[in-house]
Write a structure and sequence with these properties.
The two termini are 51 Å apart. The strands form 4 sheets. A 6-stranded mixed sheet has the order 3-4-2-1-5-6. A 6-stranded parallel sheet has the order 16-15-17-18-14-19, with helices on both faces. Strands 7-9-10-11-8 form a 5-stranded mixed sheet. By secondary structure, it is of the alpha/beta class. It has 3 domains: 134 residues, 5'-nuclease (Rossmann fold), CATH 3.40.50.1010; 67 residues, Archaeosine Trna-guanine Transglycosylase, Chain: A, domain 4 (Roll); 214 residues, P-loop containing nucleotide triphosphate hydrolases (Rossmann fold, 3-Layer(aba) Sandwich). The chain is globular.
């Protein structure tokens, strides 16, 4: 019996990754005619789904030069691709409704009954359940998935000898500790292994070399870290050599607040960047926001309210001290408006980022867990000279129906980029928003 398999692809797989056709090695890739019909409905859209639909259609059209798509054409991966049509069955079939999902599943069922080893690939859980009920093996598209349970956290607790800790405090950089620090910019919480209460917080410069955290970053924009994870995050957010930062954490851990504080510090006080660009995905990415009233900025205000909440906290007037002059009459909203009018702070929809080149900006993409790996790649590739990118999000709160904690763009980037010197990642676990928020995040 042949080891080759027939992978029947659902529409959502092609819309998720336009290059997935070449991801199945030397096996057979089958695209049902119903999928082609659904791609046709998406191709005119101006968002990421439309672009992927058009790319897939162009790819299929180019493959026609290799032969007849019905009979099968060779792929560069070594396999072959077929477009298969199937007449809908009689009423005694398990698939009787003439709907796209069932017409796609019918192709898989016909191949299965013909004795082929069929695997139905879909991002839709319900479609996979229906396939399983028909006795057809079903899978999610796995190429861009990581094991979320083993996601790189960005730091480690390590036991070392008291002598190593003493040597570390005696120098700015400690070299030759080859068993410490697996990845660049990984943080280490060093503990003495002899029962003494000697501890140190270190950052991996490169594997085998650790350094102290910078004293310059103890406080940024009047914000101070409330726990060690936040202190580590500040180090990454402020370091100009770390050009890409990913922050993962549940609600209230301070991801967005710290990113905005670092961005304002680096732009307004240090002059390192020309402006701060903040964006959040409109779920699904690129959905038309024209139904909201007003111009672009007024429409975005609905989606950017969490950003304004954090800005209001950061830009609130300082408490008046006894004996000081009368407090300023400038309100928090006026401070925010000033940043917006001067273009020091720019709010942008991700819809408009594609095709841009963004130099010398501090870019924050909030709620990045709602982006696909391809969408995140598109965003990061917009970075011009001197730009820093920060992606924040909570993988447990995903609104995109075809993504989960293991397949979203934020965790994918965090895991894939951990070996690179210009990337830093941190998972924040402690909620600091309030006692109530912390209890809710952990218990509900």
């Amino acid at each position: 019996m042949s080891d080759k398999k027939s992978f029947v692809l659902d529409t959502n797989v092609l819309l998720h990754n336009a290059e997935c056709i070449e991801c199945f090695a030397d096996n057979s890739v089958v695209i049902p005619m119903a999928v082609i019909e659904e791609l046709d409905k998406f191709k005119s859209q101006s968002n990421e789904l439309g672009r992927n639909a058009r790319q897939v259609i162009r790819h299929l059209d180019a493959l026609r030069a290799q032969g007849n798509l019905r009979d099968g054409v060779p792929l560069t991966s070594g396999g072959e691709l077929k477009i298969m049509s199937q007449t809908f069955p009689s009423a005694d079939s398990e698939l009787v409704e003439d709907i796209p999902d069932n017409r796609i599943l019918l192709v898989a069922a016909v191949l299965h009954r013909a004795g082929e080893r069929v695997i139905f690939v879909s991002k839709d859980i319900n479609a996979r359940l229906k396939a399983d009920a028909l006795g057809i093996e079903a899978q999610d598209f796995e190429k861009e998935k990581i094991n979320f349970d083993e996601l790189y956290t960005g730091y480690s607790d390590v036991e070392v000898s008291a002598e190593v800790i003493e040597a570390f405090f005696a120098t700015n950089v400690l070299e030759g500790v080859d068993d410490l620090g697996r990845y660049p910019n990984e943080f280490l919480s060093l503990h003495s292994d002899n029962g003494e209460r000697k501890t140190a917080l270190a950052r991996t410069v490169k594997p085998g070399t650790i350094s102290h955290l910078s004293s310059k970053y103890e406080k940024i924009w009047n914000v101070q870290a409330r726990n060690r994870e936040q202190r580590m995050a500040i180090e990454l957010l402020m370091d100009p050599d770390v050009q890409l930062v990913t922050l993962v954490g549940m609600a209230g851990t301070g991801k967005t607040l710290l990113a905005l504080a670092a961005a304002l510090q680096c732009t307004e006080k240090n002059g390192r960047y020309d402006s701060v660009l903040v964006s959040r995905p409109v779920v699904p990415l690129g959905k038309d926001i024209g139904y909201l009233p007003g111009d672009k900025d007024e429409k975005l205000a609905h989606w950017m309210q969490p950003i304004f909440d954090n800005l209001a906290f950061l830009l609130r007037p300082a408490p008046q001290m006894a004996g000081k002059k009368k407090k300023s009459t400038v309100t928090t909203q006026q401070r925010i408006d000033k940043l917006l009018k001067s273009n020091t702070l720019v709010l942008e929809a991700l819809t408009y980022i594609r095709g841009r080149s963004i130099p010398r900006q501090y870019v924050i993409v909030d709620e990045a867990q709602n982006l696909t790996p391809h969408e995140v790649k598109t965003i990061i590739s917009r970075a011009g000279e001197g730009t820093k990118m920060v992606l924040t999000g909570d993988p447990y709160q995903i609104d995109n129906p075809y993504l989960d904690a293991s397949s979203n763009g934020l965790t994918y980037v965090a895991e894939r980029m951990k070996v690179h010197q210009l990337h830093g990642h941190l998972t924040l676990k402690t909620s600091e928003r309030s006692a109530l928020a912390a209890i809710a995040a952990e218990s509900l």
